């Protein structure tokens, strides 16, 4: 085998394709299981500023009551970023509140996750029948969350279309971390492959130059 050929084979035929596969797989997994940094305290104490929220992409048909979801609701004037909310009611539910408690379909809703144990947060009472294909959303920090309660003037009881739900929070960070690790390891493998290929190419050229014999001296008569 010519000098440098082994390096080129290792770089281009093995490591470069492997690196490409790992980078692409990492990007695909990252898209399916994204991670977000929380910037507000609207979901405190479940999530606070600076926390990392791991999520999974879901279809509208998978949304359930109690889910913590990431939504983009243009109707609420939020078009450029995702916000984090909790699903309180789905299509067909009746969500009501007095000055002390929240009710879904006439039954008091147990909410151990709300900030300060206050499910109302000083907001006025309401009575909303959630239309089909829509969801009623509240933040866990009811005293500091601009949620469905404050958009009831839009004619849909403050609800959002279920299609506004893009992701659901998950307590399984594994897929997101695996995606990040796969991407960076793949990038490193890719760079090593390119490096070995380049080194092999330069080594082979250098060896070929040394192997060429010098021209014979001109004869002088």
As laid out across the biggest beta sheet, the strand order is: 1-2-11-3-4-9-10
Rg (CA only) = 29 Å
The CATH homologous superfamily of the largest domain: Umud Fragment, subunit A
Task: From the 3D structure, determine the CATH topology of the largest domain.
Answer: Umud Fragment, subunit A
Detail the topology: elements first, then pairings.
Layout: H1 5-32, E1 35-37, E2 52-57, E3 68-71, E4 83-89, E5 94-97, E6 102-104, E7 107-108, E8 126-129, E9 134-138, E10 160-161, E11 165-169, H2 174-211
Antiparallel strand pairs: 1-2, 2-11, 3-4, 3-11, 4-9, 5-6, 5-8, 6-7, 9-10
Helix pairs in contact: 1-2
What keywords describe this structure?
four-stranded antiparallel sheet, single chain, Umud Fragment, subunit A, 11 strands, 221 residues, alpha+beta, seven-stranded antiparallel sheet
Tell me what you see in this structure.
The protein is α+β, with helices and mostly antiparallel strands and 221 residues long. Helices cover 30% and strands 20% of the residues. The chain has 2 helices and 11 strands. The strands form 2 sheets. A 7-stranded antiparallel sheet has the order 1-2-11-3-4-9-10. A 4-stranded antiparallel sheet has the order 7-6-5-8, with no helix packed on it. Helix 1 (5-32) packs antiparallel against helix 2 (174-211). The radius of gyration is 29 Å and the shape is elongated. The mean pLDDT is 79.
Q: How is this structure best summarized?
A:
This protein is an alpha+beta fold and about 220 residues long.
């Amino acid at each position: 085998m010519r000098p440098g050929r082994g390096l080129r084979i290792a770089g281009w035929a093995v490591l470069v394709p492997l690196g490409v596969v790992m980078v692409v797989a990492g990007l695909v997994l990252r898209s399916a299981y994204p991670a977000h940094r929380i910037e507000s305290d609207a979901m405190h104490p479940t999530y606070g500023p600076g926390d990392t929220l791991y999520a999974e992409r879901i279809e509208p048909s998978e949304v359930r009551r109690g889910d913590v979801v990431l939504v983009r609701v243009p109707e609420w004037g939020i078009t450029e970023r995702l916000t984090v909310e909790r699903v309180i009611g789905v299509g067909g539910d009746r969500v009501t509140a007095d000055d002390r408690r929240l009710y879904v379909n006439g039954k008091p809703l147990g909410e151990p996750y709300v900030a300060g144990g206050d499910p109302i947060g000083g907001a006025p009472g309401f009575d909303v029948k959630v239309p089909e294909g829509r969801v009623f959303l509240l933040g866990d920090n009811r005293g500091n969350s601009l949620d469905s309660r404050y958009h009831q003037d839009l004619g849909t009881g403050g609800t959002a279309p279920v299609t506004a739900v893009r992701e659901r929070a998950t307590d399984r960070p594994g897929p997101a971390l695996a995606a990040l690790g796969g991407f960076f390891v793949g990038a490193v493998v890719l760079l090593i492959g390119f490096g070995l290929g380049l080194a092999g190419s330069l080594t082979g050229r250098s060896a070929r130059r040394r192997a060429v014999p010098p021209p014979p001296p001109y004869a002088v008569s």
